[in-house]
Amino acid sequence: MYLRAVHAETHIPTLRQLIRDFPLGILTTAFSSTAGPSIQSSHIPFLLDVQDESSETELGRLRGHLARANPQSKALIEAVSKNQGNGTTPSNILTEEVLVLFTSPVQHYVTPKFYTETKPATGKVVPTWNYAAVQAYGRARIYFDARSEETSAFLSRQISDLSEHAETSIMGYTGPEDSRPAPWSVKDSPERYVELLRKAIIGVEIEITRLEGKFKMSQELGAGDREGVVAGFQGLGTEVAQEVAKLVEQRAELKGKTS
What we know:
alpha+beta; Pnp Oxidase, Chain A; 2 domains; 9-stranded antiparallel beta sheet; 7 helices; 34% helix; globular; Putative transcriptional regulator; Split_barrel_FMN-bd; TR_PAI2-type
């Protein structure tokens, strides 16, 4: 990730929160495989496990799953199978680093028309794009042996926890006590049906070794142009533009506290 200091976000809890708010990540792997191209990517919703939520340094672990028929799954299984018998790496852990990219949906094109200070003064302005993203790097453990109790336990927990997170945190289905619908549960489906589907997926658990975050929200601009960006987005009247305007203001305030 290209990170200018003005756009870099190094506060780990902030990066963890972006992952939880927008859990659909893009898992990218890069290694030779007979199952497909050397570089493969898949969109996967992830869970982030952290032992100490108050910690400002703990990176955590990502949990997800892929369809077994996915060519990337086949490449992952092939890669970890090469470890078997070498005596140096557990047979289901990749030796190669993997990357997961998380991107906030709060993103937008920025027209030079918003730069109310620089544009009329010099005309030296160009378009850009405002966005926020997190890149998580780490080593992946692959749960692929359908006969293994370890794999079965991981996948059962994974699909149950992911469903609960999505139903409550994303959909807001917290139950009648909150005057909301009750969340859907994996237990609502026939056990045999869930078992068959579980055999059609593999699990991925990534111990994060590095997190990089970027909030590119016009922090590099002077106050006049930045105020023009906020006013410009507010004037668009769309929900996304309003959210971008808020983030531009928040990031400007944070920049003021740290500069």
